[in-house]
Amino acid sequence: MGTYGRPLFGRATRAMSRRVVWGCLVAAIVTVVLPPRVAAQQPAAPPGWEVPRTAYGYPDLQGNWSNATITPIQRPNGQEPTLSAAEVAEIEGRREAVIEEEAQASDPDRVAPPVGGDGSTGAAGGVGGYNYFWIDAGDRVAVVNGEYRSSLITNPPNGRVPPMTPAAVERRRASFAGASRGGQYDNPESRPAAERCIVSFGSNAGPPMLPNYFYNNNYTIVQTPDNVMIMTEMVHDVRVIRLGGRTNPLPSQLRPYFGDSWGHWAGDTLVVETTNISPEQSFQGAPATAEAKVVERFTRAGPNTLNYEFTVIDPTTFVAEWGGTLPYNRQPGQVYEYACHEGNYAMQNVLSGARAQEAREAAQNDQPR
């Protein structure tokens, strides 16, 4: 039961459905959020540099890393695969100008935002969104092997996600239709996993592990002889990758968040294959299928750089494989626990509000005409 004895679960109204709380989800829009400055792109390996190794001989990937960048996941139409130094200077200069403008102190005497939000990041309803102080998505173009990249995706050559198969298009349509039938404010399970602080919005923990173009794009890697642990700051998600042969895979019906990951060393590169990906995780809006597999490669490219490669393989969803490369840059500070809404106490308010509006509209409909 909800506040004042009202049930929390029920049919959400059409009007309520239009007021989705985008503040928790806007980070999934990967090409429009303008982040402030973070550490500059790390330089290439100096002459004579050798890959550091753990006490048991494997390449040392440990430490704190960030994959924040202003390079979009998909390449803009008409753009070449790489950028010139002049293009990079212009792009990064524009970003710095926006950051400087948006990071100015707020006027304490400003008027209330208009209904529908004020246009700021995360704005919804009658409130404003995130002050720019909180946004930390990076301000540098991604550099891989000395090249300024115009997109993180490099395969296919056009730098864009391949088209979906007809079956995937239908599956996505059915998924959307199923979600709308029950009403998105009917119960906790109908709210997005990111809003419920179950997993990150975007694909931070992955696989593939991609930036969210918003904030908290940080990772901590810890190695043992038998496992590699990757802690994702957003939303304190943890992946444990077992090393060695795939001797004890999960049954096909078990599909946890982030899937079932196994790794092995190919020279100085850690290769990770992940299957059994949860159907609640999606690629371009289509739920992952039982056939989906993601292959990741982690390679130290310098004292402060870790190159990350990924390939998405799901023939029932896409007409071709796709993937790319991006740098992870070392972070000198600590990674703190992400302060999501612990216990999600606001969920009761969200559901209670829906029940209150339904009761109000039902009362209006019962009035004599």
Distance separating the two termini: 32 Å
| Helical percentage | 10-25%
Mean pLDDT: 83
Which strand order does the major sheet show? Answer: 1-6-7-8-9-10-13-14-15
The strand count comes to 15
Whole-number count of domains: 1
Any low-confidence stretches, pLDDT <50, length ≥5? 1-40
Largest sheet: 9 strands, mixed, barrel
Per DSSP, the total helix count is: 4
Please report which band the strand proportion falls in: under 5%, 5-15%, 15-25%, 25-35%, 35-45% or over 45%. Answer: 15-25%
- Helix-strand sequence: HEEHEEEHEEEEEEEEEEH
Give the class from helix and strand content and strand pairing: alpha+beta
The 3D shape can be described as globular
Radius of gyration: 22 Å
Structural overview:
The chain has 369 residues and is α+β, with helices and mostly antiparallel strands. It has one domain. Helices cover 17% and strands 21% of the residues. The protein has helices at 14-18, 85-102, 166-182, 346-366, and strands at residues 63-66, 82-83, 143-144, 147-149, 153-155, 218-223, 227-232, 237-243, 260-266, 269-275, 282-283, 286-287, 293-302, 305-313, 322-330. A hairpin with a 4-residue loop joins strand 7 and strand 8 (237-243).
